[in-house]
Amino acid sequence: MVKKYVFGTPFETEAVTEHMTALSPDSGVGIGEVSTQEGFCLRCRMGTLDVVYGLGEANRGINKRGYLYVSDCTDDPEHVEDKVSLYGAHNFIVISGETHVGLFFDYPAAICFDIGYTRQDMLTVSCGYADLYLYVITGDDAYDVVKQFRRIIGKSYIPPRYAFGYGQSRWGYRTADDIRAVVDGYRRNHIPLDMVYLDIDYMQDYKDFTVNSERFPDFAGFVEEMRAQQIHLIPIIDAGVKIEPGYDVYEEGVEKGYFCKREDGSDFVAAVWPGWTHFPDVLNTEAREWFGGKYERLISQGIDGFWNDMNEPAMFYTPEGVESVNEAVSEYARFLEAGDASGLYEEDLMNTANALPGKVRERLGNLQNNEADYKRFYHNVNGRRVRHDLVHNLFGYNMTRAAAEAFEQIAPGKRILMFSRSSYIGMHRYGGIWTGDNKSWWSHLLLNLKMMPSLNMCGFLYTGADLGGFGANTTRDLLLRWLAFGVFTPLMRNHAALGTRQQECYQFEHMEDFSHVIGVRYRLLPYLYSEYMKAAVRDEMLFRPLGFVYPGDRIAVQTEDQLMLGNELMIAPVYTQNADGRMVYLPEEMKLVKFMPDGSLYEEILEKGVHYVAVALNEVPLFIRKGRCIPVADAAQSVDAVDERTIKMTGYEGAEYEMFAE
Ligand code: GLC
Known about the structure:
Elements: E1 2-7, E2 33-35, E3 40-45, E4 51-54, E5 67-71, E6 88-89, E7 92-96, E8 100-106, E9 111-115, E10 122-127, E11 132-138, H1 142-153, E12 166-168, H2 176-188, E13 195-198, H3 219-227, E14 232-238, E15 241-242, H4 248-256, E16 270-272, E17 275-278, H5 285-293, H6 296-299, E18 305-309, H7 319-338, H8 346-349, H9 358-365, H10 371-374, E19 378-381, E20 384-387, H11 395-410, E21 417-420, E22 423-424, E23 432-434, H12 442-457, E24 463-464, E25 466-467, H13 476-486, E26 492-494, H14 511-523, H15 525-537, E27 543-544, H16 546-549, H17 554-558, E28 563-565, E29 569-571, E30 581-586, E31 590-595, E32 601-606, E33 609-614, E34 620-625, E35 629-632, E36 648-651
Parallel strand pairs: 6-22, 12-13, 12-26, 13-14, 14-18, 18-21, 21-23, 23-24, 25-26
Antiparallel strand pairs: 1-11, 2-3, 3-10, 4-7, 5-9, 7-8, 8-11, 9-10, 15-17, 16-17, 19-20, 27-28, 28-29, 29-34, 30-33, 31-32, 31-34, 35-36
This protein binds alpha-D-glucopyranose.
C-alpha cells in the first residue's frame, strides 16, 4: 500500500507519475515521528536486525545502515569511504526486518539520511525546508515494496539493442584517426566492440553540438564509415554552453532568455571545460524544449546515442568566486604594507615562505562547486523564479529529459542511447546513468557491484561504472576482473581519464583473454536483454541483493559481494588482487557454470553452503539457480552479429526459460 503525505508547498519534481491524493500528515505518517519545527525531520527507531536498502547511487554497502548520506548532486571524483554525496540524488529507502516499509522523500534540495550513524538504532532523515511529499509504502517483503514504488514512478528507460554491447571510451581521443585506431585495435585482435565514445575533444572549443572540422573533416561520413564496421559513435554533451559571440546556441539562448539567471536578471556565468559558460535553464519548459532540439544537429549526422555530463551542474569557478580570491590577495597586501598582523591567519605568521596566505588558499580551495554559487542563480519555472539550491538535484534529470523529449520529436519511436552523470528519481524514465569518475581501485570494483541493486530499486536499470577505473592507472588483472563483472551490467563501458595509462584491452599482453571475457557478454546477450526487458516492462529489478530472494536466510541477507541477476542467476565476481578464486555462499543448491577460455562451459552442481570456487583471470563464472536454465549463444564481435540460431539452453535438465518476446 502506498500513502502520499504532503508537507508545506513542495516543488513538483514529477518523479512520481501515478496520480494520488495527498494526505495530511497531521495525525502522523504511520512510521516514526515527524517534526517541522526547523526544516523537516523524520526520526524512527530501527530494530536490531533491520536492514536498510536503497539510495541508488550512494557510497558504502548494499545495507546502508551505519553511516550518513546526503543527497546533494556533487561533482567529486574522490569516492573514498567517507564521502557522503555522489552525483545522483535517489531518496528512496526500504527498512526491512519484521515489517517492510519504503520511504520516498520527494524533495529536490539537499537531504540527509542518518541511518544509524548518530545512534545505531535510529534513522533520521532531515532537510532544510518542510516542503516535500513523503511516500510511505508497506508491503509483504522488501521486493514487494520496491515493485510498488517502481509502479508509481513510471517505466524505466529502454536503450537500443546495440547499447547492450561493449564500448570503449577515453578522455583524450581527439581525431577521427584516433577513433579508427581504437576500432582497428579491437577488430584486429578479435575483441568484440559496439561503441566508441567521443569525449569533449570532438567538439570545437568544447562547444555543445559542434564538431571540430579539422579533426573530423567529414563527420557524417565518418559516422557512416564506423556504422559499416558495426560501431556506434557516442558523443558527450556537457551542461555549460560556451559564451562566445557568433556561437548560435549561446546567442539564441541569451536572446530568448533560456539561460539560468542571477538575482539581478543577468545571465549566470560559471567556468567549465569551455571557459566561461551559461547554464541552459532546463527547469523551464520552453528552454528545455529548445536545448533538447539541439541534439538534432548530431542525430542528423547519423548519431544515435549520447552521454550527458557535468550536469550537477559542475562549476570550476565563477566570477564571484575569483573576485573573492582577489579580495583576499589585496587584503593580504594591505596587511603586509601596514605591518598589521591582526587580520592574518596563524599560518601566515609562521615562517612559510612558499605558502599562499591562508585566506587566499582557503578561497581558492572553495572555488569549485561552491555552495554560495549554487545560491546565486535562478530558474524560471512556469513564470515563477526559483533559486537553484532549492531544486539543485533536478538539473541532470531535466537536462536528460530535455534530450529524451526531443528524441521523440526528432525520431519518433526510435530508441536512442542516453545516459547521464547526475540524476534524480524520475530521470530513470528518460535515460540511464554511469556512476561517474571512479578510480582504478579494487575497492571501486566492489562499490560498483554494491550500487547496482540500489540503482535498480530507484528505477535506474541501464547503468554501469567506468570499467577498469577512470582515474589512476589500471592494471591488466584489475581490468580483466572488472570486465568479468561488467559483462553483467547493462552499460558495459571501459573509460579512462586523460593522462592515465592506456586502458584499451589491446594494450595488454594476451589479448585473447580479453577477447574471451568480453565474448561472454555476447554469449549472454539473449539472456541479459530478455531479463532487462522483463525488468523494465514489469517494474522489476535486474540485480537484487540475495536478501530479496532469500529473506529468511541471515547469511544471504548479510552477503554484500554477490548478487542475483535476473530470475535465474547468482553472480559472485572476484574483486581482490592476486586471487585464484573466492569463497562463495550458495543459499540453495545451484549449478556453477564457468565460461572457459577455449569457449567450453565447465558445469558442476554445488550444494547449499560455502564453497571455494577457483576462477582464473580469463574465466567468467555464474551460478544457475536450482531447476532453472538460461539461453547462451555463440560469441560474436558485435550485437548485430549474435546469431540466435546458435542459442542453447544451459543449466538444469528439463528446465524452461521464458524468453522476452518484443
Ligand atoms: C568528467 C566526466 C568524465 C569525462 C571528463 C571529460 O570528469 O565524468 O567521464 O571523461 O569529464 O569530459
